[in-house]
Design goal:
alpha+beta; Beta-Lactamase; Heat Shock Protein 90; binds adenosine-5'-triphosphate; binds magnesium ion; binds zinc ion
């Protein structure tokens, strides 16, 4: 630190004084050396805020020479060519200076856009004058200016790193949450699919059990019918023919002719019974000709067995337009719906329509019978097997079954199957 040297005449001092002065001089040099070794700009300012002493850092920072800046104000030192009346640094320095001169140490930081440096400015009072009245206070102070640019740059870089790290963590967390959610959805979807599969397995098992039961019932019914109607009719025919033989052997007992006529009548009835039974079995025609022809045939047979009901048949679908996988189901549905008409409706007319429109095959069966009370619809629906079987057959083959019945108006059923484009 450069000192304003006071020239003291050696002749006026005794030896002791000279020793003391020497020691003081040495201490000053040591302190100067220490101050010069600091990385910060250190200056001592007088009560008017003018630089009295300054360390060599002023030269490293290219602000001037140690001797050249003595007597300058701090703003003129740090902002050599600044004439800005609004200069923020000048204002900061004035504020800090007035505080420190009232004995209050203080500090602030300033970013200098010209030199692109961050300065930390620290103001320290020289004496402990804080408690003294203003007039007698030592108003000198030390200003230490440290270049904290590197520190700030590091802090900013650190902040940036932190926030980029944070956003990366956030991104990763979000990605993880997303894949977690996807995974959970997938698990749920699979569970659902499994449940549905199990349910449809159960449905299928139930359906096949019902089909077997229905088959058994059908066989029992045929056996019963063969026994009761055909068997008895044939017994009656046999008896009638035997009587005719006796009458022919002994004409005195009467004419055989009416008895034979009766036998013919009974045989006719028996043939009708056989026809009714066979009609309800799987017709060979289904395999030979196809579903459309088989259904047309069934309707014809049906109207012969039930002459009281006029059947209006409109089968416009071609045999080739009804895929083999659903042929039997279409046929059985017509069978069941017409049997229901005969069993329950007391209808005069029934309409059967089967048509194909693009990929849709539709069946419509309705009658003008007694229909059903709406309140009775549900329980009856549950009790009967026929309609439930139709619904299951439809669902099993990708079709949809709709049923409606109005008391005294009639009953109407529709089934629609959607075919695959290449299905015919
Ligand atoms: N065309 C119809 N007219 C009036 N009622 C009907 C008609 N079709 C069905 N029903 C009513 O709906 C009920 C259920 O029919 P469904 O075919 O399921 O059973 P079912 O014919 O009684 O017995 P199953 O068909 O098992 O021999 C019938 O009992 C009947 O009361
Ligand atoms: Mg039925
Ligand atoms: Zn300035």
């Amino acid at each position: 630190m450069a000192l304003k040297k006071k020239t003291v005449s050696a002749t006026t001092l005794n030896a002791n004084d000279q020793d003391r002065l020497g020691a003081i001089e040495r201490a000053k040099h040591e302190w100067e050396g220490t101050a010069d070794a600091l990385p910060a700009l250190v200056c001592l300012l007088n009560d008017k805020g003018l630089i009295v002493r300054i360390n060599r850092v002023v030269e490293h920072w290219h602000l001037g020479t140690v001797g050249g800046v003595i007597g300058r104000e701090s703003h003129a030192l740090l902002h050599p060519n600044c004439h800005d009346p609004q200069c923020e640094l000048a204002r900061g320095l004035r504020r800090a200076q007035s505080k420190v001169q009232r004995g209050k140490p203080n500090e602030f930081e300033f970013y200098d856009s010209l030199s692109e440096q961050n300065w930390h400015l620290n103001f320290r009072p020289i004496g402990s004058g804080e408690n003294l009245p203003l007039a007698v206070r030592d108003r000198r102070f030390v200003l230490v200016v440290a270049d904290v640019s590197a520190l700030r740059r590091t802090q900013i870089a650190l902040q940036r790193l932190n926030s980029s790290l944070e956003s990366r963590v956030q991104l990763r967390t979000r990605a993880l949450a997303d894949s977690n959610r996807d995974l959970r959805n997938e698990v749920a979807r699979r569970e659902r699919a499994e449940l549905e599969l199990r349910a449809s397995h159960n449905d299928l098992a139930l359906l096949s059990e019902q089909l077997i039961q229905a088959q058994e019932r059908e066989r029992r019914r045929i056996a019963l019918e063969l026994h009761d109607s055909v068997g008895q009719s044939l017994s009656a025919v046999k008896y009638t023919l035997e009587r005719a033989v006796i009458l022919m052997q002994r004409p005195a007992l009467g004419s055989a002719e009416p008895v034979l006529a009766l036998a013919v009548q009974r045989l006719y009835e028996t043939a009708e019974s056989i026809r009714a039974i066979s009609m309800n079995l799987r017709p060979q025609m289904l395999d030979d000709l196809g579903a459309a022809s088989a259904i047309a045939w069934f309707c014809r047979e049906f109207s012969e067995v039930y002459p009281a009901i006029t059947i209006h048949v409109d089968v416009s679908a071609e045999n080739t337009e009804i895929p083999e996988r659903i042929a039997i189901h279409v046929f059985r549905s017509v069978q069941e719906l017409l049997n229901n008409v005969a069993k329950h409706s007391k209808a005069k007319n029934a309409w059967v329509r089967l048509w194909r429109d693009g990929v849709t095959l539709s069946l419509d069966v309705h009658d003008d019978g007694v229909g059903m009370d709406q309140s009775a619809t549900t329980p009856n629906f549950l009790h009967g097997t026929g309609l439930r079987n139709i619904r299951e057959r439809a669902e099993m083959t990708g079709g949809q079954f709709a049923y409606s019945s109005i008391a005294e108006k009639g009953t109407s059923s529709q089934i629609q199957w959607q075919m695959a484009i290449d299905e015919n």
